[in-house]
Amino acid sequence: MLSKSIATTIILFNILLMTPNASIANENSDYLNGVVGTCREECEGERGADLLNCWADYSPEKCKGLIYDVNKTAWKRCVYSCGTANIYSKTFGDCSD
User: Fold this and answer.
1) CA–CA distance, 39 with 57 (Å, rounded to integer)
2) Would you call 37 helix, strand, or coil by DSSP?
3) Dihedral of CA 42/76/86/15: which sign?
4) Which residues contact 95 (CB under 8 A, 6 or more apart)?
5) What does the alpha-carbon distance between residue 61 and residue 86 come to, in Å, rounded to a whole number?
6) Tag placement on the chain: N or C end, fewer CB within 10 Å?
7) Contact at 8 Å (CB) between 79 and 59?
8) How far apart are CA 63 and CA 65, in angstroms?
9) How far is 57 from 46, CA to CA, in rounded Å?
10) Do residues 82 and 60 lie in contact, with contact meaning Cβ atoms separated by under 8 Å?
11) How far apart are CA 12 and CA 5, in angstroms?
12) CB neighbours of residue 49 within 10 Å
């Protein structure tokens, strides 16, 4: 039989493992909002295909082609996923712009 303190420790450890990390969600949301803000600022005045091309220019590398999707859901998910990418990925890898 496990002692009470060991059982309590195991229960707390399992709760921590199953609890979503709110800071990761916030970091991803902040990154998405930052990219959208940059695109809005830099692409102001553009229209039609020029607007889409401009947004693609300021999108992470792996998300550039997704900006042409009609509802932009895939693009948003892609950019959101780059929020917690490491520095190498954001500078030289798939999440670089």
Assistant:
1) 9
2) helix
3) positive
4) 60, 61, 62, 82, 85, 89
5) 14
6) N
7) yes
8) 6
9) 13
10) yes
11) 10
12) 9
Q: Which two tokens stand for residue 68?
A: 């042409």
Euclidean distance between CA atoms 87 and 26, whole angstroms: 17
pLDDT digit string (tens) for the chain, length 97 residues: 556 677 676 665 555 444 444 556 678 889 999 999 999 999 999 999 999 999 999 999 999 999 998 888 999 999 999 988 888 998 899 999 8
The span from the CA of 70 to the CA of 20, in Å, is 31
Tokens standing for residue 46: 């553009």
Position 80: which residue type?
Answer: Y
> Using CB atoms within 10 A of its CB, is residue 10 exposed (0-12), middle (13-18) or buried (19+)?
exposed
DSSP state of 43: T
What are the angstrom distances between the C-alpha of 57 and each of 13, 19, 83, 84?
Answer: 44, 36, 18, 21
Q: Hey, which bits of the chain come out as E strands?
A: none
